[in-house]
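Lecture notes, structural biology module. Today: joint structure prediction for complexes of two components.
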Amino acid sequence: MPLEIQIHKSIAGQYAGATLVSLTGSLDTATAPGLERQLDPVLAGPTNDLVFDLAQLKFISSAGLRVFAMARKKLKERGGQASFVHMQPQIKEVFEIIRALPGVAVFANMAEMDAYLAARQSAYDQPKPQTPGSTPPRQVL
Amino acid sequence: MTLELQASAGEVMRAVEALETFGRTRGIGERVLFGLSLALEECASNIVNHALQGDMRRTFRVTFEYTGGSMVVELRDPGPVFDPTQAPAREPSADNDDHPPGGWGIQIVRRYTDEVRYTREAGENVLRLTKLLDPPTG
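The predicted structure, tokenised, for the full assembly:
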């Protein structure tokens, strides 16, 4: 089974800095390198919140978990966060066996995730020196 | 059923797909098949990445045996002696940022199988994964 990867730079236009990565299919020893390659430019960029939507992910092995762990580590180094939403039960079970990703946020649905990201965004919106290209504070609706 | 596979990630997934087909035609349930496929993927990936160093000219063999009461997946490779059952299980730690190769694989394999047996035969590593199957209902 192949892996389809979709990367959206913002979620509903509201969360500057958050990137949604949707995975469809199988994240395994054959497809994990491709995901790592596609994440490299994302992780090199300014995003601090990476959200993996795993609704359509049917299979994951340790090769895939290592890519997630690498992404989580890089984000963590700059105060960022990797989150996972819509995990199918058998996928969640693999995460739990390994406990490879402590401290990652796992959400049952988008509403939970939205609330979480809104809370994180308001932490970013504290007054700080403007840097070139930075985005203005977001409205919390 | 026996497959001869080249040492590549694509061939590992070919074996996984073959196991899924083999299992489905024998009425093995999806949950069991998911776990067994994952165990096969982990063990075969270890063979490709470590025992055979990713050299596609080298091959390894995977055999599926079904008895009704159990499903056995056997992997044979001609690599150097390596017993994955002796690899230390990683202790979960507060900060899991170091990833020794294979540490997670064997934990996954043990979770989804009932027995993992390693032997060395005629210059080959032989790994047998056994999963007991529930008796059919009705």
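Point to remember: The radius of gyration of chain B is 15 Å.
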